[in-house]
Task: structure prediction
Amino acid sequence: MTQLQHPPILGTSQATWADEAACARDALALAGAAALRDAFVELEGPLGAGKTTFARHLLHAMGVAGRIRSPTYALVETYELDHLAISHFDFYRFDDPQEWEDAGLRDLFGAPGLKLVEWAEKAAPLLPLPDLRVTITPQGEHDRSVRYDAMTPKGLLLIDNLGS
Ligand SMILES: Nc1ncnc2c1ncn2[C@@H]1O[C@H](COP(=O)(O)OP(=O)(O)OP(=O)(O)O)[C@@H](O)[C@H]1O
Ligand SMILES: [Mg+2]
Result:
């Protein structure tokens, strides 16, 4: 019997961001997806790829006002919009699984709302399958190639308005 090593990708959409404005346009398009109100989106890519930048444009497009901090030090920043909870995680510095319980991360993840996660691989055994994985690959100072992989049926709804 062959073992399934990776969860299947249900659908993929690709984009090129020539500059940050293109990143903002995709964020705006994604913000229009109703399914985002209860979804888990992983943001992948190396340091400085644009994960937090995309998250900022997305959250502003969804109606979050004011400054959006990178959650690198706090592990998570939370936002409360009208009937919508948003948690933005960055697990880059995550090294103590006990924090998953102690800092209330499990509860945030279990609750309905939008979860955005940077550096998910650093907390991999604790995290469920994402609905959408956004992989940002820098090609130059401003150029980014971007891949949107839908990992669940909800992820397919999310990529409906994105890329090609
Ligand atoms: N096409 C682009 N899309 C997004 N950001 C861009 C683009 N071109 C340049 N940038 C710049 O790249 C930087 C990306 O930084 P950002 O903090 O978003 O990266 P990150 O992926 O979150 O890194 P980290 O792993 O450190 O959290 C920002 O300064 C942003 O202005
Ligand atoms: Mg970041």
User: Anything to note?
Assistant: Residues 17, 19-20, 22-23, 45, 47-53, 72, 90, 118, 142, 144 surround adenosine-5'-triphosphate (ligand 1) (CB under 6 Å). The beta strands are 11-17, 39-44, 76-81, 84-90, 114-118, 132-138, 144-150. The chain has five helices and seven strands.
